[in-house]
Amino acid sequence: MMVAAPRLDGLYSLVGRSGCAVLLTDADGVILDKRMADADTSTFERWGLSTGAIWSEEREGTNGIGTCLTECRRLIIHQDDHFHARNTGMSCMDAPIFGPNGQILAALDVSSARVDQTEAFNRLIAAQVNQTARAIEEANFRAAFPSARIIVADSDNNEAATLLAIDEDDLVVGATREARRAFDLATTGPLKARPASDILGRKDGPSGFERADRAAVLRALARADGNVSQAARQLGVGRATLYRRMRRLGLNDI
């Protein structure tokens, strides 16, 4: 919720003036947080859109929040698409948020109280809802792996967060739901650590140790602005030793 709050504020600043409410639920459809105008609050709460209310599909039938959580996909439930007659005055645009372990974590919902809401306008709002959901998912993933290097990977789905968390040993220790799909990793649960080069399709070369050694020397030289004596001190070796290692690694022209 701490990660989501500023992004809920940002989304509400875009849609709040048009009679929309922004809601965040947990994986069971319980409303955890909301943003709505004072003038619209009584209408939304009469429909049951209040903090603590349960909007699971089992409880409310077809509805934006519950159906999004059940089908694990973004969707629009426009007015009469709702199961219960008391909900048909609403249009709801929803997107799922997946947790660091690939499991459904929450739903992000924008519900409109306007009876003249058009389906074309719904689609515009739905695109912003999906973008905000992805931003929350990415920020939450980064927060779950604070000491890891986060790689944004390629995917054929440009609407999803495709992130890999890589530790200091160059092992992939985390992946978003879309990254798990793209790289054929376990769908949910903790990942078994695997070398990033294996997952990303990059070969280590003739010697993995040699490649790591070369990378360490290059980093030290970069930090020292090419000063070999200073780089040697960083690495804890003598200047002559470093020169020999550079020749062995094919770095003698640096």
Class from helix and strand fractions = alpha+beta
Structure summary, number of beta strands: 9
Query: How many whole angstroms does the radius of gyration measure?
Result: 25 Å
Largest sheet: 5 strands, antiparallel
How far apart the termini lie comes to 50 Å
Describe it:
This protein has 254 residues and is α+β, with helices and mostly antiparallel strands. Helices cover 41% and strands 19% of the residues. The chain has 10 helices and 9 strands. The protein has helices at 5-15, 38-46, 57-60, 64-71, 119-144, 177-182, 196-200, 208-223, 228-235, 239-248; strands at 20-26, 31-35, 75-78, 91-98, 104-112, 149-152, 163-166, 171-175, 194-195. A hairpin with a 4-residue loop joins strand 7 and strand 8. The two termini are 50 Å apart.
Task: Write out key terms for the chains shown.
alpha+beta, 9 strands, 254 residues, four-stranded antiparallel sheet, five-stranded antiparallel sheet, 10 helices
Q: Mind sketching the topology for me?
A:
Layout: H1 5-15, E1 20-26, E2 31-35, H2 38-46, H3 57-60, H4 64-71, E3 75-78, E4 91-98, E5 104-112, H5 119-144, E6 149-152, E7 163-166, E8 171-175, H6 177-182, E9 194-195, H7 196-200, H8 208-223, H9 228-235, H10 239-248
Antiparallel strand pairs: 1-2, 1-5, 3-4, 4-5, 6-7, 7-8, 8-9
